[in-house]
Amino acid sequence: TTARISETDKKSSVSFNDIAGLKEAKVEVMEVVDFLKNPETYTKLGAKIPKGVMLVGPPGTGKTLMARAVAGEAQVPFFSLSGSEFVEMFVGVGASRVRDLFKRAKEKAPSIIFIDEIDAVGRSRGKVNAFQTNDERESTLNQLLTELDGFGPNTGVIVLAATNRPDILDKALLRPGRFDRHIYLELPNKHEREEIFKVHMRNLVLGEDVAIDILATLSPGFSGADIANICNEAALIAARKKTEAIMQEDFLEARDRVVGGLERKSKIISPKE
Ligand code: ATP
């Protein structure tokens, strides 16, 4: 496997408008946008701008979306890498990817580095799966720590990382000057689910009988990603029927399919846990 380092152009199209709910997380993330846009406000008073921010929350709650929105709102380049891509890599490759990523981000500063699934590289040392050697993961993690320590606090690069397993992270990652800020993203409540449905229905052709509050009531425990999935699935169901608009029954059918998918997933996952 080769890790992809992707860079979006200056006009990352995601904005805070695309994120529903998550009010408190948004307020905290807006501060990061301000660090990138107006660093002098902080540096002229002698403040050190934080380098690393950890986005913590269950799968599908919008961590990646939030990171992209920071880049979009601040109008800075976005470099991203996923921790899980390192797992199957040859020794030495992970570390050099990390080095390369930081180098490119520094050249383009102000910029954002986003490391998704950081727990895949950053899980605490010693807790390894018996079938896997941990050399590669460890050298990648060490390189990441070296890079984080190696650049000054006011170089204009902010590293955002995402995890749904903060409990297994190596404590070295969380020390002051590294990922010392945490922003929590929770699963949406009913009102927030309504808001997420509205965001994902913006571009859909809706029938008159679509009742968002009922859909939100019928989707307890669903993440933003699940809701996005329902909306798209409903559109596909309606399209197959060759109708003019997507009706409530299409959303209900889509919801049942997503529930079915979630149940299958949890059956596969739970024996391991
Ligand atoms: P994972 O932990 O599985 O990587 P994540 O927390 O990074 O998930 P995202 O990839 O950001 O989640 O979310 C997936 C998709 O779900 C988004 O692209 C978006 O369409 C939708 N979504 C998630 N949360 C929200 C939200 N709060 N508002 C609107 N859409 C959302």
Give an overview of the whole structure:
Keywords: ATP-binding, Cell membrane, Hydrolase, Membrane, Metal-binding, Metalloprotease, Nucleotide-binding, Protease, Transmembrane, Transmembrane helix, Zinc. GO terms for molecular function: metallopeptidase activity. The chain is 45% helix and 11% strand. The chain is built from ten helices and six strands. Strands 1-3-4-5-2-6 form a six-stranded mixed beta sheet, sandwiched between helices. α1 (23-37) runs parallel beside α3 (63-74), α4 packs parallel to α6 and α7 packs across α9 (224-240). The longest helix has 22 residues, at 248-269. The protein is globular and about 55 Å long. The two termini are 26 Å apart. Adenosine-5'-triphosphate binds at residues 19-22, 57, 59-65, 116, 162, 164, 196, 199, 224-225, 228. Adenosine-5'-triphosphate binds next to α3, α7 and α9.
Task: List SSEs in N-to-C order.
Answer: EHHEHEHEHHEEHHHH
What fraction of the residues are assigned to beta strands by DSSP? Answer: 5-15%
The mean pLDDT is: 87
User: What structural class do you assign from the helix and strand content?
Assistant: alpha/beta
So how many helices? 10
Largest sheet: 6 strands, mixed
Cα distance spanning the termini: 26 Å
Q: Based on DSSP secondary structure assignment, what is the total number of beta strands? A: 6
Strand order of the largest sheet: 1-3-4-5-2-6
Uncertain regions spanning at least 5 consecutive residues = none
What is the helix content? 40-55%
The distinct ligands, each listed once, are: adenosine-5'-triphosphate
Function: Acts as a processive, ATP-dependent zinc metallopeptidase for both cytoplasmic and membrane proteins. Plays a role in the quality control of integral membrane proteins.
Keywords: ATP-binding, Cell membrane, Hydrolase, Membrane, Metal-binding, Metalloprotease, Nucleotide-binding, Protease, Transmembrane, Transmembrane helix, Zinc
Protein name: ATP-dependent zinc metalloprotease FtsH
Main location: membrane
